[in-house]
Amino acid sequence: MAFTIVYTLLALLAFLYIVISYRAADVIVKYHLTVNPTRYFQTHIIKFAVEFIIWVIIARSAVRLKMYTHSLKGSKDGEGLSYIANALFLGLLYSITFTMASTLKTLFYKTAAFKTVTILTNLIPIAFVVVLSVALLIGSMKLNRTGLLQQVKSLKTEYFTAFILYAAALLLYGMYLFRVAPSVVDDDGLRHFAERPSRLVLVYVLPYGLAWLIGIIGTINLAYYAHHVEGRIYRLLFRDLYSGILLAFTGTFLLQIFTVSELKSNGFGVGLVVFVFLISLIIWASTLIYRGTTELYKLEQ
After folding, report:
1. pLDDT one-digit tens code per residue, 77-104
2. Rounded to whole angstroms, how far apart are CA atoms 93 and 70?
């Protein structure tokens, strides 16, 4: 029953996205924007076909893990895994809003709401990724039965290494975005950001940076749990789960860089190839997550 509801909702969203893409192509024609409307629509459908696979895999993973937690109801593990399942559902919402945001924005071109919609289409996906990172962190701490300070003491080397890498990546990303933000355009030829570069640091770079940091800490905690949980089979399955989540965060980070890069995916060129590669990386990550959650669910049946 749960899968039927999820598949129905995803199918409706897929239909909605195709309609929005078609209408966006009409807007491109109407206002003589600088992109080819036919190629715009074709490449959007190609990209969406790949992204839809991610939607389905993440949805199935979240439902499977949620069903598994029902068999652990009342236990600490069940409570922790329930938070992680919620994080996967939020990941699905992030993926959906990230996919649809810029295309939806095009429909409001030349309207009074265009600037507001542009800002919202950038901020709403960030909100989902911040909340899902917090849910992942809480779930991982509950699995390990520790608070954050105790976890830091246990994994100080791992945390320190992750923080150094994170700080370097965030600094480079922030500097790059500050430089290119005014010139970044989406596949429709319209500006990606409506805010000034200085404001983007506060409302875009720092929230994403916070989400990545919290997500990395949560993933490290989950990896610690996976290496210490009793039973070799459980260790292998949780290894798939945390490996998939870590790879998903990595793919998301690279996709954010691609979004503000000079590579464009609105034509059959290098940009589209890079985009499909990054999405394929996230599909691989989602597959690892799905394999871990599905096998965990099967163990309890």
Report:
1. 788 888 988 999 999 999 999 888 888 8
2. 22
